[in-house]
Specification:
382 residues, alpha/beta, 31% helix, 16 strands, five-stranded mixed beta sheet
């Protein structure tokens, strides 16, 4: 749809061809607190993790998903490549969900490819919160269906981001001496790692993916492997750690290691914030923040179900660094009464050579592993 629209990889590639051999893919994830790199190699039906490397991001370089200092980020990208000792010119990377617009659009089924392209160029602006001329847009046909009037249509997945966001990523990686082969949405890369799990659910069953990142949480409600609803909540491990620091009279810090060693007490909704729980201040702070996140998730689910009454929420999957907080799955299960489990991309993909990732770290590397996997599935990857 424009010169860089093909950089927004369609989600349907997450369920792409699994047959191949020998191809290696390198994904680089730019997170607010770390730059992650993974090299994944495909051998038949199995995957091998050849390289996993990560460098910390200082404060003030990336904020709320936006790259504020491209030259500094480019230096960090070069540092993670040097640390990994890989030779690479082309990579896959992702933008955070908060920077993207994802919509499912019903389109007349009789349109050919050229007519569909013209239709989407004309209609895309209706779904964007910013001017169409400022957007990079891509789309992908999904499945056919018959609407309530008996008219055959096709669902089209529309993905868009502001062009300034795309340009910033292109410029940053160019400064690092790299070319972006694929730029996609972070949640798409994460979903790619759990595609086999998602295949187990019927079209009437919805799965909620809660990706608790450093400074935000991405909520995605998925049906048939496709996000039907997405939302960003400005609450992540950093905000929970801040609350913990205040409660324990500790100095401010971007380090969330202490939080990862904590366990969320399981408590009733009524006891949270009442001062009657008898918890120590640190535990009470964690429960309060996790309770706020649970409330935001409940509101998102209720909003979605009010528009999709025929669907049932059957599973909550926790991903991101926040999924490593002790008993987080039990906490959400108790609060929301939805079966909850952690995402383990290493186990889901059967990745070999995973000694570099501890069990608690696995949910936090889902995006970068999905990016590396995306490259191995690309027929042009080399």
């Amino acid at each position: 749809m424009n010169a860089v629209g093909n950089l927004l990889a369609p989600l349907t590639d997450a369920f792409g061809n699994l047959v191949g051999g020998g191809k290696q893919g390198i994904g680089i994830e730019i997170a607010p607190d770390r730059i992650n790199l993974a090299q994944v190699q495909k051998k038949g039906q199995k995957y091998k993790l050849n390289v996993l490397s990560s460098v910390p991001v200082p404060e003030g370089i990336i904020d709320e998903g936006a790259i504020l200092d491209p030259p500094a980020v480019a230096e960090l990208i070069q540092a993670v490549i040097d640390d990994s000792r890989v030779k690479v010119k082309q990579i896959s990377t992702a933008i955070p969900g908060r920077e993207a617009v994802i919509r499912l659009i019903p389109v007349p089924a009789e349109l050919n490819d050229e007519e569909l392209r013209d239709f989407m160029n004309q209609e895309a602006g209706l779904y964007l919160p910013f001017p169409r001329e400022e957007a990079d847009v891509d789309y992908q046909k999904l499945g056919y269906f018959t609407d309530e009037d008996g008219i055959e249509k096709v669902q089209v997945l529309l993905v868009a981001t502001r062009r300034e966001v795309t340009d910033t990523y292109l410029d940053t990686f160019e400064q690092a001496g790299l070319q972006i082969r694929t730029l996609e949405i972070a949640s798409f890369a994460l979903i790619r790692t759990i595609r086999d799990q998602l295949r187990a659910y019927t079209p009437e069953q919805a799965v909620v993916l809660l990706d608790i990142e450093f400074d935000s949480t991405e909520i995605a409600i998925i049906v048939n492997g496709i996000p039907q609803f997405s939302r960003t909540v400005p609450l992540g491990t950093f905000q929970i750690q801040e609350a913990l620091n205040r409660a324990m009279n500790m100095p401010p810090s971007r380090d969330t290691d202490l939080l990862m060693e904590m366990t969320v007490p399981i408590t009733s909704d009524d006891s949270v914030g009442t001062g009657t729980t008898g918890m120590n201040p640190g535990n009470a702070a964690i429960v309060k923040m996790m309770g706020e996140l649970s409330d935001e998730l409940r509101r998102s689910i209720d909003f979605y179900l009010n528009q999709s009454e025929e669907l049932e929420i059957v599973q909550l999957l926790l991903a991101g660094p926040g999924a490593a907080i002790g008993d987080a799955d039990q906490f959400f299960n108790s609060r929301l009464n939805i079966p909850t489990s952690r995402v383990d991309p290493v186990d889901a993909l059967g990745i070999e050579g995973d000694d570099a990732i501890t069990y608690s770290q696995r949910p936090g590397f889902g995006v970068v592993l999905g990016l590396g996997l995306r490259e191995t599935l690309d027929e042009k990857a080399g």
